[in-house]
Write a structure and sequence with these properties.
single chain, alpha/beta, UDP-N-acetylmuramoyl-L-alanine:D-glutamate ligase, nine-stranded mixed beta sheet, four-stranded mixed beta sheet, 9 helices, about 35% helix, about 25% strand
Length: about 300
């Protein structure tokens, strides 16, 4: 079984700051770092560190960032033969401001991610097998994301979609291509059009999203945990209490954990707990990919809290 990630690779330019600026304000930060990121690459690294066989499909620019992004995946044992190097455009970049409480503002410049095309979908399609899992996000062009989901569905591959950043042009037909839809509470609000702030409102949002065609929903609520809804089950999973250092990539950690657990055939509750523990450990460390935990760390946290 292979986990295929069809999505973005970005270099994160991270500014640490005492607090986030308000519009029009200039403040002094405390530290600057460059960290490999991008929702696609983050999810690939998350899954690889949890023990999965992972293949990445995407594009980088023919620049120093692009080479560093590919090398960062190879170090994790991720297959990068389908990461194309695009001439004449920069690699994707994310400018991130993080305050001392772990809150963040993020601006993404797609760069080569915006050049992902149908030829990339064709390469992906040739690699898929029925027991595989495909993880998708919305940092590459939507028509290609939809085509990837469609070809995966046709081949019996499980499709997990992190709808971030939310697309206003998302057609209703897309939901029918999705096995697992995993928005956070802000993304869920944008998708359903009403506030999502707790387990009750998350349950209402999940019902709407399932009615549109997605087969199962996990709504990530930060410190409130997650709400899980599938055809035969609906339940909350509480968050693990950990010190919050940086919430960047928490959602990517969750998706990587969910994909790995589901691919291993555990129960829905066990998969949700495993993913929640993976996300919890990620927020207790700084950075995107550097914060993603190992399988050993996740299992230790689960053992300490659940037994």
């Amino acid at each position: 079984m292979t986990l295929h990630i069809f999505g973005s690779l970005n270099m994160d330019l991270v500014c640490q700051t005492p607090r986030l600026p308000v519009p029009g304000e200039t403040i002094l930060g405390t530290e600057f770092t460059t960290v490999p990121g991008g929702k696609g690459a983050n999810q690939a690294v998350a899954a690889a560190r949890l023990g999965a066989a992972v293949r990445m499909v995407g594009r980088v620019g023919n620049d120093a960032f692009g080479q560093a992004l590919i090398q960062s995946l190879q170090v994790e044992g991720i297959e990068t033969g389908d990461v194309q190097i695009e001439a004449g455009v920069s690699s994707g970049v994310a400018a991130i401001a993080v305050d001392t409480s772990g809150r963040n503002h993020i601006i993404v410049i797609p760069g080569a991610n915006g050049r992902v095309a149908r030829s990339d979908v064709e390469r992906l399609s040739a690699r898929l097998a029925p027991d595989d899992t495909l993880l998708l996000q919305f940092e590459v062009p939507l028509p290609e994301v939809m085509a990837a989901a469609a070809t995966a569905q046709q081949q019996g591959v499980t499709v997990i979609v992190d709808p971030a950043p939310v697309r206003n042009d998302l057609p209703e037909a897309f939901y029918g291509l999705v096995d697992w839809l995993t928005p956070n509470q802000v993304e869920a609000e944008q998708l359903v059009g009403f506030p999502v702030a707790d387990q009750k409102s998350a349950a209402a949002a999940a019902k709407v999203l399932r009615q549109r065609g997605a087969r199962a929903i996990v709504i990530k609520l930060g410190a409130e945990g997650v709400w899980v809804e599938a055809a035969d089950a609906a339940f909350p999973v509480p968050a693990f209490e950990v010190p919050v250092v940086d919430t960047v990539a928490a959602g990517d950690a969750f998706n990587g954990g969910l994909a790995v657990a589901l691919s291993e055939g555990v129960s829905l509750l066990e998969a949700a707990r495993f993913a929640t523990a993976t996300a919890a450990l990620s927020v207790s460390q700084a950075g995107a990919q550097p914060s993603l935990p190992t399988r050993q760390a996740v299992e230790a946290l689960l053992a300490a809290h659940i037994g």
